[in-house]
């Protein structure tokens, strides 16, 4: 039990160290890229620092699989270099028990990563988008509760839910005169973006005139406002940063309106398989600190980890592109690279044992 906790602690500390370095580098490059935008609208130095802080959780989730691979390889490699793994085996700790401790450490990291991606990142991204909106000059936006308020010249627009690609649900548009009096109110069930405006669907329009009000139902209506597609892209949350519940709701919306949802389904399964990827990365590090690899130095292990991490990213991108091109289901597209690296990890762990068993069976058959 103590040995298992010791191995897990080493992996967790190694992962946190690798993650800190990777996220710090990513935030530094983001800082350099954002410096040119200082002074646009209300975007000052404090807003820049707040934007970087809110971007950090997303960076953590993005780099977590690579950090687990590098951290596990370096921490376990350190134990191997100090002959601690050999001492554990000499004291009766089997490789299966050590592997169990590694997997337990990986499961904990995977759970924390999934909760971070599902609970923290969506809210952080929403607030980061609000800070980015300070650079917008033509239209101002304010998020209150579950809705979004936009000021468009003499009109005020309320959107209950803003979806990727500019689609929106439950929109209210209030038209005011120059003195601030309400002239007209428009409600729509959903909207899709046009150049400089929206195409509203299932519209209810109320006009206030001569002390009275008249209402009418319209199937479709064009709203030619000043709400640009670029502004909407700033205000909405990317599907990759949605929670699983929000992503499921968005997929239902796309299906109900017969819109293409292949990309969103791919993102959904990538989110579901992210914990599995983390566990596989941790498992992949274990064979490289056994046997002859225990004499490798830190630089060699770091190089091996980077090459393996980049290989996974490249293979994942290639298989994703090929799968999307040839119509493979998103579930299978996401499963393939994970299954490939899991097989590779098991081969590195048990390949020699399998070969010995196979040779023994062949020897017995030949003697008969």
What does this structure look like?
- This protein is an alpha+beta fold and 368 residues long.
- The chain has two domains: 227 residues, no CATH class; 89 residues, no CATH class.
- Helix content is 61%, strand content 18%.
- It has a seven-stranded antiparallel β-sheet with strand order 1-2-3-4-5-6-7, with helices on one face.
- A hairpin with a 2-residue loop joins strand 2 and strand 3.
- Helix 2 packs parallel to helix 7, helix 2 packs across helix 8 and helix 7 packs parallel to helix 9.
- The mean pLDDT is 83.
Write the layout of secondary structure elements.
Blueprint: H1 2-34, H2 45-81, H3 84-90, H4 95-132, E1 140-144, E2 147-152, E3 155-162, E4 168-176, E5 182-194, E6 197-209, E7 212-223, H5 229-235, H6 244-256, H7 262-285, H8 298-325, H9 330-367
Antiparallel strand pairs: 1-2, 2-3, 3-4, 4-5, 5-6, 6-7
What is the strand tally?
A: 7
Structural class computed from helices and strand pairing:
alpha+beta
Question: What gyration radius follows from the Cα positions, in whole Å?
Answer: 27 Å
Q: How large is the share of residues in beta strands?
A: 15-25%
The CA-CA distance between the termini, in Å, is 47 Å
Which residues sit in consecutive blocks of at least 5 with pLDDT less than 50? none
Strand and helix order = HHHHEEEEEEEHHHHH
Short overview:
This protein is an alpha+beta fold. The protein folds into two domains: 2-133 and 273-367, no CATH class; 139-227, no CATH class.
Keywords:
18% strand, 368 residues, seven-stranded antiparallel β-sheet, 9 helices, alpha+beta, single chain
